[in-house]
Structures are given as C-alpha cells and as structure tokens.
Amino acid sequence: GAVVSQHPSRVICKSGTSVKIECRSLDFQATTMFWYRQFPKQSLMLMATSNEGSKATYEQGVEKDKFLINHASLTLSTLTVTSAHPEDSSFYICSALPAEIYNEQFFGPGTRLTVL
Amino acid sequence: AQKVTQAQTEISVVEKEDVTLDCVYETRDTTYYLFWYKQPPSGELVFLIRRNSFDEQNEISGRYSWNFQKSTSSFNFTITASQVVDSAVYFCALSEANTGGFKTIFGAGTRLFVKA
pLDDT tens for residues B54-69? Predict the structure, then answer.
C-alpha cells in the first residue's frame, strides 16, 4: 500500500514550452502533497506544499507564477513548469501525506526534466 | 527553524567494513520526526526508518542500526558489513509536527561508495 506515482518519469522539452507533471496517490487519499526539486548531486529542496482544494504554499525563492501547482482532488496534484528554461532542468519529486497517517509521507519515483 | 546537517559529503569503504553516517539536527519543537532515506542511482527515494522525538530507543534492522541521542541532537546511521549494493546517497530528514502541513527538511546527503 501507500504508493505514489509520477508521470512522466522523464521529459525533454524545448526552451519556452510548458511541462506538466502529475503526482498521484494510488491507494490512499492525500490531503497534502509536497513538491521537491533536486539538482544533480544536491539535496531535495522543498518547493511548495499543496493542499487539496486550496492554493499551494510556496517556499521562499520559488516563483509561484512559474511553477503552477494544482491539487484538484485527494489523489492528484500537478506541477506545471511554465516557459521552461535550461536552468529548470532538474529532478522533480512529489510526496503525499495520507489523511489518516499524519506523520509519514510517501514519495513518488521522480520526474527528470531536461530543457534544451 | 529546522536544520539538518550531514557533515560527511562522501564516504568510501571496502566491502564488509562497518560505516556510520552522521546526522545532526536543529529544531525548537518538542515533537518532531526524524527519517533516513536511501537514494540509489535510479533516483527513487527508499524509506529506511522513522523515529519520533519521544522514542530514543535505538533500532536495529538487519545490517542497519540507528542511534538517536536527543542530548546531542544526533540521529546516526550505521551499516554493518557493508555491501556494494549499499552504494547510494543517504539522506537524513526532519519533520516538525507543529509545522502546518508536516514540512520535511532534508540534509545535504552523504554519498556512500562501497568497493568490492
């Protein structure tokens, strides 16, 4: 149980295009989902906290107009990288916090974004 | 404010050696959770352990053991008789229960190389 999927697992796009990444909790409902970014050989940095039905809370330094987050249901959150540039190339990881287990989050497998 | 320090950037050992990965944390909360994750080259995070702030009991799971000491704010991880498959990046992480949304902060990670 407690499986989180991400789609796509890998995406390559041209500079200036927008890319959407989906994060799904497959066998549980998640009132809260988190989005992380990880640059090569670096740690995971929290980008934003997404709560179902409300606006996401972004960490300091993360542009909310560039990284659009939508958490429309208890099993799906999406991250859209708008007008992507090469510096946005990174590994994006989501995690989901089950409604009934408040102290453990489950991570997706990650999405590797390459912007040419 | 939360902070997790993993001072060891890289560690290289020979197979069958024991190795300890250090983790020091900072928090003002009395209720918090500490985690260790393994990140193999594939990128997907593998959950290893969760420990809450009220449980200082050390834990052993096979070749893995964890030493939690609140007095020194440390949560160290030891791999006994290391194997090549243990080669990965290991992250220590901290979540504060009183922070809205159970935000998790990761340390910088320790890259472990186990040579045959």
Answer: 988 888 999 999 999 9
